[in-house]
Amino acid sequence: MRQLQLNKKLVGTITFHGAHNYGSMLQAYALQKELEDLGHNCEIINYRSFEQKKIYQVISGRKGWGPMLKDISHLFFYSKLKKKHKLFERFLRENLITTTKEYNTLVELERENFKYDVIICGSDQIWKPTIADFSWAYFLPFGGDAKRIAYAPSYGPSPQFSMQYKDAFVRYIKQFNAISVREEGTKRVIEALTGIKDIPVVCDPVFLRKKEQWEKIIDTTPIINKPYIFFYTLYADKEMIKLVKSIGQELNLPIVISNFTNYFDISAGFELHLECGPCEFLNLINYATYVCTSSFHGTALSLILNKPLISLRGMSDNRISSLLERLGLQKYSVNSLDDVKRICSLPIYDKNILNEHIAAYRQVGVSFLKSVL
């Protein structure tokens, strides 16, 4: 039975919901769904900065050698990447409830007379000031008298803070009514900067949805109808590609990728499936024989869907190591070619034990949301 109606709130959330990044869009979806399940009216504040929209265009037109070379590489796959772009926009349009108005600047948000009882920022790396699409909007300097809550924001892979942002960071955080974070590294940063103690570490929103709930938006027909390794990373380097190829050879399975990040993965001879939005991404995970990933959300969603996981350098990433440690899966992280035989010979984790850990992890997040709402 749904919780209700006496304490029903009008909730606005703000996060990277419009980023054409699988994890970003899926965690926005998951948080909204959970708030609805808790009995609240929820809409995502449709904040899409000009910089963020430019980043995710097929041809971004951004300055600098890196973006320019990426644009040139995209020309070779333009039609497939255009379809991918449309699939992301379709998922946003059909699965997320957003404000009718789109906001592109913090000034526009500050001028708006929002009527929310509560505004929640999070999750994802919204509190990392050095990323290209960062905005102080994710610290909620708008919204009038609404209660301000942070649900599982992240400072990113490294807990080292850029001190030039300290004053604004501290000023905004102290205006919150309740704060939670996604991993221990982010907790340490905030506690060191603000003196706030006992900040709860809660699960990423994707864990708020159960396996069977995710399966409802996954097509029952596999995109790839054969055994394969799904390899997903946000940035490939030469050594990572060698590592993945070695894993593929050891397991005698082809490697499938849904995006390319640079020359290394596009020239590796992997099987490309670029026409891949959020639902297609979940399909590739769900029907994979193994998932091989250096991505936080790639890791999280693979575990929720109970897929055999090989975490690439996971214990070197503050976000992923925190997750693997909580779920007792540190041994499924691989760092070097010397470790490939070990990782490929490991027995698959006990799914029942994993699901018990995930259920407990989920409950921490649900309990936090209930308590602050």
Short note summarizing the structure:
This protein is α/β, with parallel strands linked by helices and 373 residues long.
Helical segment count: 15
> How many angstroms does the end-to-end distance come to?
18 Å
Helix content: 40-55%
Going across the major beta sheet, what is the strand order?
8-7-6-9-10-11
Strand content: 5-15%
The strand count comes to: 11
Instruction: Report the order of strands and helices.
Output: EHEHHHHEEHEHHEHEHEHEHEHEHH
Major beta sheet summary = 6 strands, parallel
Mean pLDDT: 92
Taken from the alpha-carbon principal axes, the silhouette is globular
Kindly describe this structure.
- By secondary structure, the protein is of the alpha/beta class.
- It is built from 15 helices and 11 strands.
- It has a 6-stranded parallel beta sheet, sandwiched between helices. A 5-stranded parallel beta sheet has the order 2-1-3-4-5, covered by helices on one side.
- The model has no long low-confidence stretch (mean pLDDT 92).
- 43% of the residues are buried.
- It is 42% helix and 10% strand.
Features:
373 residues; alpha/beta; six-stranded parallel β-sheet
